[in-house]
Amino acid sequence: MNAFIQWFLLPAVYGVTLLMILLGCVAYITLLERKVQAWMQCRPGPNRVGPRGLLQPIADVLKLLLKEDIIPRKADKIVFVLAPMMVALAAIGALAVVPFGGADATLRLGDFTLKPVLADVNIGIVYVMAVSSLGAFGIVLGGWSSNSKYPLLGGLRSAAQMISYEVPFGLAIIGPMMIAGTASMTRIVSWQTENTWLFWLKPVALVMFYISGVAENNRAPFDLPEGESELVGGFHTEYSGMKWAFFFLGEYISMIVVASMVVTLFFGGWAPVTFGLGYVFKDLPAILAGGTAPAFVHFLLGMAWFALKVFFVLYVHLWIRATFPRYRYDQLMAIGWKYMIPLALGWIMLTGAAVLIFDAVKA
Questions:
Q1: Where do the H-state alpha helices sit in the chain?
Q2: Which of 38, 269, 272, 284 lies at a CB distance of 3.0 to 4.6 Å from 189, suitable for a disulfide?
Q3: Which residue, 108, 99, 78, is CA-closest to 18?
Q4: pTM tops 0.85
Q5: How many whole angstroms separate alpha carbon 307 and alpha carbon 69?
Q6: Shortest CA distance to 185 belongs to which of 282, 117, 252, 131?
Q7: Which tens digit of pLDDT belongs to each residue from 63-121?
Q8: Quick check: 145 and 81 in contact, CB under 8 A?
């Protein structure tokens, strides 16, 4: 019975709680995006539903639930229905290995322990790469199953974009893995809190990873698969109601996944560490607790610090959308193949040389 509670019930409760929080965050990220774009374009933005428009996401969800769910007559109905679910589930599954706290944040609940990560596996980064890539298949299948020319073109664009930017996306991760010597996301964060010597190797990898992540999410200025000015609505042109909502649920959760990986790999994760410069307010939990901080203080403060960093990265996502125009398709391909991939390969060589030199000097 104890094994059932420890290995099934507690992770299930933690996972469901995390999912509920995630859905709430997605709802209000949409509101934040509309507000940020409105501020940057000198518009008021949503301000009718609730005080200052704060209930607008609830109204949007109700609208999507009540809208008619249409399936085109000549569509492949099974694939048409499953495609948006695949996009959403792939994004949700990628968050299973993201650590929101460290070993000191483990809570003891009687005979049981609760960790701030659903599954702390040694190949967490590889898992995220593998699972998040499945979302592109959902987009391609959604475009194909609609049996319409505009969604099909959007799906083909998504496939080409995935191939072009999946490579630098993965190559940018190799640098932090080489430096830390592990593919475990928890251990990479722990390494950052103890080592600062390769700080100047991080910014270039960070820029490459972030740009590739924005392109992987089909976010502006890389939103060619859903280019309204060319493809009506792209791969989701024929979708409506909750199936349409699943596509965008997957997109916004993927934004959170990319932001979480940026924070984990480059910004010190849950720890109060910034850009590898060492601890900032290292004893903050103890100071706030008036002495030795109990585990639940580490648990809550670690999550709060992690969430603050993720919010900052997401805000940059929204800022980019409001600032840059959409690239042409040839420009999209050129950035990926002519610049991102060669730069990523060169940076891996430089990082490897720096690691070897450091190890030789240390020995």
A1: 2-4, 10-40, 56-66, 77-94, 124-145, 149-180, 185-194, 202-216, 228-231, 241-266, 284-289, 295-323, 329-334, 341-362
A2: 269
A3: 99
A4: yes
A5: 35
A6: 117
A7: 988 888 888 888 889 999 999 999 999 999 888 888 887 655 666 666 666 677 777 78
A8: no
